[in-house]
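chain below, 283 aa
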Amino acid sequence: MTDFGPLIDIVLLVVAALLPALIYLAWVRSGESGYPEPWSPLLGAFLTGALGATFAAALIEGALLAGGTAFSQAYPKPEFVFLNGNSTVGVLFLVLVIAPVVEEGLKAWGTTSYGPKFRRLADGPVFGAGVGLGFGFFETFLYGLGAYLTGGIVAGLALIVVRSLSSVLLHGSSTAVFGYGYAKKRFGASGSPEALGYGAAVGLHATFNALASLPVLVLLLGLGNQYADAFALLGLGLAILLAFSAIEYVRSLVLRESYAGAGPINARYRPPAAGKPRIVSRR
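prediction:
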């Protein structure tokens, strides 16, 4: 008789990771008063983050980690130790620098691919949230699957719950911040708002990872292992607080920009005769 137990467990893990991400996306989307973004392109953005950016990030980060480790072993000097993925400093460099830069870059790419569908400024953070939450969903599922394979279904679900309250929100929020900057650029804002948005996304991501890695950072500072559990709880709590604060900011941004406009096209913008739309001065 066929045992469907493992298959049911996998489906349960997928559902547990998927539902919170879609609920967060629906909540952000609901901030677009009167003219919310249609679900079809928004779910496309979600899949772009889930199946495009996630795999690309894994490949790029894996290649950088392998290359850095090989280089640090070939040239074993203290100044290159941060490149060694087998060292604590190397892992922190991956978590605090490489991962934020690479992942936010790939999620930003996913967001820009939906730029032509932006009808108004509020669409930028909504599509950004869609890509980021898709990325967060699939990454969380993969982490949960790893925990399941080593510790069973309870361990897998527990990890998914924790990440759904923290990492998933962080990915959605950081990419939404970039999406807002990119939308401003598409609608003709001066300067480089998309670059500022990307920098803010990377900074938010790195800060979150630093909080999640607080026990390791404390150990490197020489405070010892006796406080590891306390710092782990503190770091997790602060990371969750940051993630919820960030997604709340994103939705408030969507609400503000939606109410500032009227109709499906924001009242502050109008397309020129040719080329990209541009900002019209606010009265």
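Residues 266-283 have pLDDT under 50 and may be disordered. The longest helix spans residues 39-74.
thats it, cya
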